[in-house]
C-alpha cells in the first residue's frame, strides 16, 4: 500500500528469475468513466492500511498455497488520489509456466476486489461520489 | 471506551473517521453509534461488515477500551 506511483518496471525486474519462464503483470488503471459517471478524472482510495495489508498478505499466501510452484507474487495498491490513466493496483506473478502465472494473477486481482477493505471515490466533472460498484466484503479463501 | 474506525461511506455518514464508544458488547456499542450519528449511518451500518481488532465478531462479543471496532461498508478496491 502506498500513496506513491506504482513502479511496475521495478516489480517486473524483481519477479524475473532463472527458474521462471513466465511473468504475468496486471495493472488496473484509472478509466475516464464508470457505470455511474462520465468525465472521471481521478479516483481516491480510502482504507485502513493495517487492515488492507493484512488481507493482501492473506491473498498472496493463498496464491502460494494454490500454486506452490510460483516463483514470485507481488500485489501493490495505491492509496489517496490517483489521476486518470495512472495505475491504482499492480499484480505481478512469476511461474515456471504461463498457465499458473495467469491463473494466480487473476486470482489475486479478483480476490482483492472483493476481500480487501478499500473504498473508491470517483472524482468527475462537477463532483465526486463513492463507487456504485461496491460489493459486500468477502473472505480470501472463498473464491 | 472502545475505539471506533469508520471507513469509506461509513466515515461520510458519521462525519468522522475515528471516535470512541461504550460497550459492553458490540451490538450495544453499535446501537450507541447509531444514536449518535443518525439515520444515514444506520443505513450504511446495515449493509456493512463489522470487525473487532481486525476480525469478524459476533454481535454479543464483549468490547473493552483496548478494542478497535471497524465498520466496513461494501468494498471497491482495485
Task: Quickly list its features.
heterodimer; A: 143 residues; alpha+beta; Aldehyde Oxidoreductase, domain 3; four-stranded antiparallel sheet; three-stranded antiparallel sheet; 7 strands; 31% helix; 32% strand; B: 78 residues; Ubiquitin-like (UB roll); five-stranded mixed sheet; 5 strands
- Ends of chain B: how far apart? 34 Å
Helix content of chain B: 25-40%
Structural class of chain A: alpha+beta
How many separate helices of chain B?
3
Radius of gyration of chain A: 16 Å
Give an account of the 3D structure:
The complex is a heterodimer of chains A (143) and B (78). By secondary structure, chain A is α+β, with helices and mostly antiparallel strands. Chain A has one domain (8-127): Aldehyde Oxidoreductase, domain 3. Helices cover 31% and strands 32% of the residues of chain A. Chain A has helices spanning 8-15, 49-66, 98-115; strands at 22-29, 40-47, 72-77, 80-83, 87-95, 118-124, 127-130. A four-stranded antiparallel beta sheet of chain A has the order 4-2-6-7. In chain A, α2 (49-66) packs antiparallel against α3. Chain A is globular and about 50 Å long. The two termini of chain A are 22 Å apart. With 78 residues, chain B is of the alpha+beta class. Chain B has one domain: Beta-grasp domain (Ubiquitin-like (UB roll), Roll), CATH 3.10.20. Chain B is 33% helix and 26% strand. Chain B has helices at 9-14, 26-37, 39-46, and strands spanning 2-6, 18-21, 49-52, 55-56, 68-72. A five-stranded mixed beta sheet of chain B has the order 2-1-5-3-4. Chain B is globular. The model of chain B has no long low-confidence stretch (mean pLDDT 97). The A-B interface holds A 28, 45-48, 50-52, 54, 77, 88-89, 109, 112-120, 130-131, 133-137 and B 5, 7-9, 11-12, 47, 49, 51, 54, 70, 72-78.
